[in-house]
Specification:
About 75% of the residues lie in helices and about 0% in strands. By secondary structure, the protein is mainly α. The protein has one domain (about 1-375): Amino acid/polyamine transporter I.
Length: about 375
Amino acid sequence: MQARYLQALALLVGTIIGVGVFAIPFVSAGVGFFAAAIEILVLATLVLFVHLMYGDVVAVTPARHGLPGYVGLYLGKTWGRVSRFSHILGLTGSMVAYVLLGSSFLHAIMANFWPAVSLGWSMALFFIIGLIIFFYDSSFSTEAEALLTFLLIAALSGLIGLGIYHGAFGFLDVLDVSQLPVPYGVILFALSGSVVIPRVYETFSRNHSGFRRVIIAGTVIPAVFYVGFLFAILAASPAGVSKDAISGLIPVLGGSAVFVGSLIGFLATITSYIGVGLAEKGLLQFDFGLPKVLAWLLTSVAPFVLIALGISDFIALIAFIGALAIGFDNLMIIGLWSRLPRHIVLRALPRILPWILGIAFASGMVYQIFSLFSL
């Protein structure tokens, strides 16, 4: 039982901690550490309720579905079709972001051993890794994902310690609450892990108490690491935070920080890439009714086609996905939970709390839409 608990926890934590953690310092630098840390913890609390709600949906419903399948079952075919579009947009966009940043980190690692290597080679290796792993079912990858996640946590802890030890703390004087909406989409993206919750449930079968504990721990752990990572990066980036959070560490931590940070970045992106990719393959297979081979090919190829078409700004991409696609998915999950005939994982809530959650995510969607039109 303990081994299954750790595997499930690693699956959820490894999927959540991905490309978003490296974008948080850049988008949060203007608002200031304390305000950004509070925003991370508040949004983590909201996301925790959503994860528990979705855990209820998965636990109560006998048939296996992705989110659009549950939406169609409980909220009707029209909402199910809208959810399909939103969910596939969010999953595919997320995978594009993982490839963009993950390939960059992998290139920095490979350049230490092969200086002439191009970014194209690292992207090709990313493609091959996904092509092989996505061919198999989730059971094939669970142990590999767990190992990668434990390595990620260890390496991330080390980088946070180095950043705090060698950094300066003048950034603590920065505070601009007018900038609070800016990091919203990125933070929400970085905290969301609902896509992998059905796989987490499969690990536990009918052990609902263990399932609940994993959801709570698996949501809280990334939030704590994000606050620590934000503090360390701001402390160790006196010349300004870089978009990838790592290259800006060179003046304080030296060139070795790029190698270690790139290793952490690759581990973070590849674990999320695997978790989200397998979820997308399952969605295409079980909710869209595609043959297994076609679902595998589409999952493996689509992110690289979109990159070839010109998508290149991973921060703008995840801010868009977080506020709109994930925000919409969260609204659907709240609606699903309210329609369930019974609740197992999250048995009772104050009646006003689902409304608070809904207003928060809807407001974030509205803000993102106005931001797009103001560009």
